[in-house]
Specification:
The strands form four sheets. Strands 8, 9, 10, 11, 12 and 13 form a six-stranded antiparallel β-sheet that branches. A three-stranded antiparallel β-sheet has the order 2-1-3. Helix 1 crosses helix 2 and helix 4 packs antiparallel against helix 6. The protein is of the alpha+beta class. Strand 1 and strand 2 form a beta hairpin.
Length: 323
């Protein structure tokens, strides 16, 4: 048992030491992948390249981004990240990492088996005293006894197999406990997030009700002027917080040349917080959908969508100007 625990402790210490740089590499790689994926979702299918200063170019030939400090990412390269996942991109690395871990502890189990077998083997036949002297001298024939000398046969013991089985049970139990702990933590975090998100349905509809109070009466002789509409935002994006970030925010900026009536809506696969600043619409809390109905004066505004989890978001906003 002492050898069993000592071998297990030594192997686990080695794994922990190697796990530190490995986890740092995986975290950095995940953050890099998430950044490229968010950028890929934002450029669509028409952008040819993203320049170093953030400019999006529709060109793919020589001289692309020459006045914007060069090409940072080609469009086709980024669109690859939009159609894949981090796990599939690193499947081979994860497989070899898991195989190496299993092989490392398998080597420990074999070491325990061999050592225990050597210590617990029992000789079946013992040579006589005179044969022992010849055997110790390295002779293959005892001239005193007149017989051939050979090493005594060893009778196998069940102890090595039991020791190896116990070692494998220890390692598999450790992997199971760690795996269940990680899955339980992820499930608890997801459940807590879902429980904290309020239902969006009850608070979504009242915003648009004031429109009826401003309608022109049916019996008025004066015709109601037809407003001129302008699409401000028509977007379909993905919010994806990085590994070390609590949330992700997309900002859409628009300008009004004069006072306008703003109407629109948004919907998301997860609850999000949406607000227009300054002095515009605000969802006040995380919801999955709502309508937007507000009157804004001339100026420049920003519509911000924030999510603490990966979410697909559709945003539509139109301005109506009175003629």
């Amino acid at each position: 048992m002492e050898r069993l625990l000592k071998t297990f402790l030594i192997q686990t210490v080695v794994v922990v030491v190697l796990a530190i740089p490995t986890s740092l590499y995986l975290r950095s790689d995940y953050n890099d992948f998430s950044e490229k994926q968010r950028l890929a979702f934002s450029i669509g299918s028409t952008v040819g390249a993203v320049c170093e200063d953030g400019w999006k170019s529709f060109s793919t030939g020589r001289g692309t981004c020459s006045s914007h400090h060069g090409v940072k990412f080609w469009g086709e390269y980024l669109r690859h990240f939009a159609s894949t996942t981090w796990a599939s991109e690193n499947a081979i690395f994860i497989f070899f990492l898991f195989a190496g871990l299993v092989g490392w502890y398998g080597y420990g189990a074999n070491y325990v088996y061999k050592k225990t077998e050597k210590e617990t083997a029992v000789p079946i036949l013992s040579p006589s005293e005179c044969c022992k002297e010849s055997l110790a001298s390295g002779h293959s024939f005892c001239f005193k006894c007149g017989v051939a000398v050979s090493e005594p046969e060893l009778q196998p013991s069940p102890a090595p197999l039991l020791a190896m089985t116990a070692y494998l049970f220890m390692t598999s139990t450790m992997f199971a406990v760690i795996g269940l702990g990680v899955l339980g933590f992820i499930a608890a975090a997801a459940s807590a997030q879902d429980n904290s998100d309020p239902s969006p349905v009850a608070t979504a509809t009242p915003v648009s009700t004031p429109v009826a109070t401003t309608a022109t009466p049916v019996n008025t002789p004066t015709p109601k002027p037809t407003p001129v509409s302008q699409v401000l935002i028509d977007a379909n994006d993905v919010l994806s917080p990085a590994y070390t970030e609590d949330s992700d925010t997309h900002t859409y900026r628009f300008h009004l040349s004069k006072t306008a009536h703003i109407r629109g809506s948004f919907s998301a696969s997860r609850n999000v917080v949406v607000e227009i600043s300054p002095s515009g619409y605000s969802s006040k809390e995380a919801i999955s959908s709502d309508t937007i109905d507000a009157t804004l004066a001339a100026g420049t505004y920003e519509l911000r969508v924030t999510s603490s989890r990966v979410a697909n978001v559709n945003v539509h906003l139109t301005a109506f100007f009175e003629q």
